[in-house]
Specification:
- The complex is a heterodimer of chains A (about 200) and B (about 400).
- Chain A is α+β, with helices and mostly antiparallel strands.
- Chain A contains seven helices and eight strands.
- Chain A has a domain at about 45-175: 2-Layer Sandwich (Alpha-Beta Plaits).
- Chain A has helices at about 5-20, 55-60, 65-70, 110-115, 145, 150-155, 160-200, and strands spanning about 45-50, 75-80, 85, 95, 95-105, 120-125, 140, 145-150.
- In chain A, strand 3 (about 85) and strand 4 form a beta hairpin.
- Chain A is elongated, with a radius of gyration of 28 Å.
- Chain B has about 400 residues and is of the alpha+beta class.
- Chain B has two domains: about 25-65, no CATH class; about 75-394, Cytochrome-c3 Hydrogenase, chain B.
- Helix content of chain B is about 45%, strand content about 15%.
- Chain B contains 15 helices and ten strands.
- Chain B has helices at about 75-80, 80-90, 95-110, 120-145, 150-170, 190-215, 220-225, 235-240, 245-250, 255-260, 280-305, 360-365, 365-370, 375-385, 390-394; strands at about 25, 30, 35, 50-55, 60-65, 180, 185, 325-335, 335-345, 350-355.
- A three-stranded antiparallel beta sheet of chain B has the order 3-4-5. Chain B has a three-stranded antiparallel beta sheet with strand order 8-9-10.
- In chain B, helix 5 runs antiparallel to helix 6 (about 190-215).
- The radius of gyration of chain B is 25 Å and the shape is globular.
- Classes of the chains: A alpha+beta (about 200), B alpha+beta (about 400).
- Chains A and B meet through helix 1 and helix 4 of A and helix 2, helix 5, helix 6 and helix 7 of B.
């Protein structure tokens, strides 16, 4: 019968229309500004810099090795290395970024900077409501705007942050053990040298 | 002695109608009407322009014009590292970024001779087939939208596509610009919770495809508009290098998953649906049938995915410098054969980087399919090619 297919299709449409009142399967949208779906844990928007402790300037993990600046495909990162050095979490004196800027109007959220960072210092944020009336200054994020605490990182990516913390703790333990053994070796060396000079003296 | 300039006082004689536009090209006794369709036409799937010459309603000439979205993809890739090109491949066919990643990763793996762990191969198949399902469903939605059924089928397709994109976001962090595959594996591992979620989505897909088919397949308007329209003969399709569902709708049995055995596709049992007529209706049906076959692959792959690493531990992410040589990696992307041709001179960036985009090559026969049809059918035939301008223009 002509029109049978159309009626069949209309029945499908009716089932979806009335079904949307009862089944969540058929009504998948939410009223956005009032209702919100929590972002996925893996979600990524724009990068931020992680710092440990309370003071962002003292605890910034970045040592300005400039790998992310070099690897960034659209070249949206600008880093200026400091002249002096500050001790990092492992107690080693390191450079720090005197300037660290990300132009988020250029950034394409590919997270290659996160992948190549050897210091677990740059991570992806999940904030997405970033509209601003200042097209140039408002989208050029400097160190202060980029710095977020490790607690914030734990809050937005709990699993990933826990793994990162474990890795950093292991690194620190290894460095500490190395420092202890190095100190012990130095003491032993000094003692043997002293014994040798004592032997020579005798 | 200087003579004063003389000015003619007579008015130049001009032919009748000199200030009107030149007469448009005529053929025989009838005037042809030239119509510029696009680039901002709702049916052009982006920025694409067609110059049509019409004899009444019939198309007598069609000239596709593209390049509005040209971004210099290949040249940019020749200036940056191998890794940095990966996020740019997402932007080729932006609805199927997983398969773009896969084809590029495959080409680089061929160049360097890297092995991919088994779990990563399974993940690639799962994500590639999910991409195919969502691409085919939304392609059908867009085709019906071009036909005039505003909204309903497209929104149903998008509702289902959103579930697949949620899976992508849960795994990779982005819905569309996934940047997921790496040379020698994948970037992150899928958690058991993610795999359960994927199984749930895949279990819901057959019911949705049934519903979608019931909505459309026997619709008399759709049949009247699509059957016998835009017929592509198999000889022309083969000669023009058309691939993908377009080629198979014309009855040519050619699927790179079956021909090349790339990845682990020879472990899965699936059929290659073929069309008889090569018209728009066949292309629409082939996409539905392929989506069903993909669901079969997905069910099998999600059942036997092994545990293990997802990336070769020796794989070099940063500072990759392949030995001098060349490689061509190709896969069966949802739109056809997607290939990446790379030449390495031993440096950190490719010497030559070339994309073989299925959309562009499938588009070259648009005029042959449209000649003799009405303007309204041109929109439909164009929609049945299923192109993405990001890939056509690169």
């Amino acid at each position: 019968m002509l029109g049978e297919g159309i009626l069949k299709g209309l029945a499908e449409t009716a089932r979806n229309f009335f079904g949307s009142y009862f089944s969540a399967e058929r009504l998948t949208t939410v009223e956005y500004p009032e209702q919100r779906i929590a972002p996925f844990e893996a979600a990524r928007v724009f990068p931020f810099l992680v710092y440990d402790g309370a003071d962002w300037q003292a605890g910034l993990r970045c040592v300005s090795c400039q790998i992310c600046e070099k690897e960034c495909p659209p070249k949206c990162i600008y880093i200026e290395k400091s002249k002096d050095k500050k001790p990092d979490a492992l107690g080693k004196p390191q450079f720090y970024p005197a300037r660290f800027e990300i132009d988020i109007s250029v950034c394409m959220s590919c997270q290659i900077c996160v992948e190549v960072c050897p210091f677990e210092s740059i991570k992806m944020n999940t904030e997405f409501e970033l509209s601003t009336s200042d097209r140039f200054g408002g989208l050029l994020l400097d160190r202060e705007k980029l710095a977020r605490s490790n607690q914030y990182y734990h809050q937005i990516h709990p699993t990933e942050a826990a793994a990162v913390d474990a890795r950093l703790a292991a690194d620190k333990a290894r460095a500490d053990a190395k420092a202890v053994s190095a100190a012990a070796a130095a003491v032993a060396k000094a003692a043997s040298a002293a014994a040798a000079t004592a032997g020579e003296g005798a | 002695m200087n003579q004063p300039h003389s000015y003619s006082s007579t008015v130049t004689e001009r032919p009748e109608g000199w200030n009107r536009p030149a007469p448009i090209e005529s053929r025989g006794e009838r005037e042809l009407l030239e119509v510029a369709m696009g680039p901002h036409h709702p049916s052009t799937h982006g920025v694409f322009r067609m110059d049509l010459a019409l004899d009444g309603e019939r198309v007598v000439r069609l000239k596709p014009e593209f390049g509005y979205l040209h971004r210099n993809h290949e040249k940019i890739a020749e200036g940056i590292s191998y890794l940095a090109s990966m996020p740019y491949t997402d932007r080729l066919d932006y609805t199927c970024s997983m398969t773009n990643n896969w084809a590029y990763a495959l080409a680089v793996e061929k160049l360097t001779g890297q092995e991919v762990p088994e779990r990563a191969e399974y993940l690639r198949v799962i994500l590639g087939e999910l991409t195919r399902v969502q691409n085919h469903l939304s392609a059908i939605g867009f085709l019906i939208q071009d036909m005039g059924a505003s909204g309903t089928p497209l929104m149903y397709a998008f509702r289902q596509r959103e579930k697949i994109l949620d899976l992508f976001e849960g795994l990779t962090g982005a819905r569309m610009m996934v940047n997921y595959m790496r040379f020698g594996g994948c970037r992150v591992d899928a958690s058991p919770a993610w795999l359960d979620e994927a199984r749930k989505v895949v279990a819901g897909l057959p019911a949705f495809v049934d519903e979608f088919e019931a909505l459309l397949r026997s619709n008399e308007i759709l049949m009247a508009r699509t059957q016998g329209v835009g017929v592509l003969r198999p000889e022309l399709a083969v000669n023009a290098g058309v691939t993908g569902p377009m080629l198979r709708a014309s009855g040519v049995n050619y699927d790179i998953r079956k021909v090349d055995h790339y990845g682990i596709y020879d472990r899965f049992n699936f059929r290659v649906p073929l069309g008889d007529h090569g018209d728009v209706y066949d292309r629409f049906m082939i996409r539905l049938l392929e989506a069903r076959e993909s669901i079969k692959i997905l069910e099998a792959a999600l059942k036997d995915i092994p545990v293990g690493p997802v990336i070769d531990p020796k794989a070099k992410i940063r500072g990759l410098r392949p030995k001098p040589g060349e490689a061509y990696g190709r896969i069966e992307a949802p739109k056809g054969e997607l290939g990446f041709y790379l030449i390495s001179d031993g440096g950190p960036n490719p010497y030559r980087y070339r994309v073989r985009p299925p959309s562009l090559i499938n588009l070259t026969i648009l005029e042959d399919m449209c000649l003799g049809h009405d303007v309204a059918d041109v929109v439909l035939i164009f929609g049945s090619v299923d192109i993405v301008l990001g890939e056509v223009d690169r």
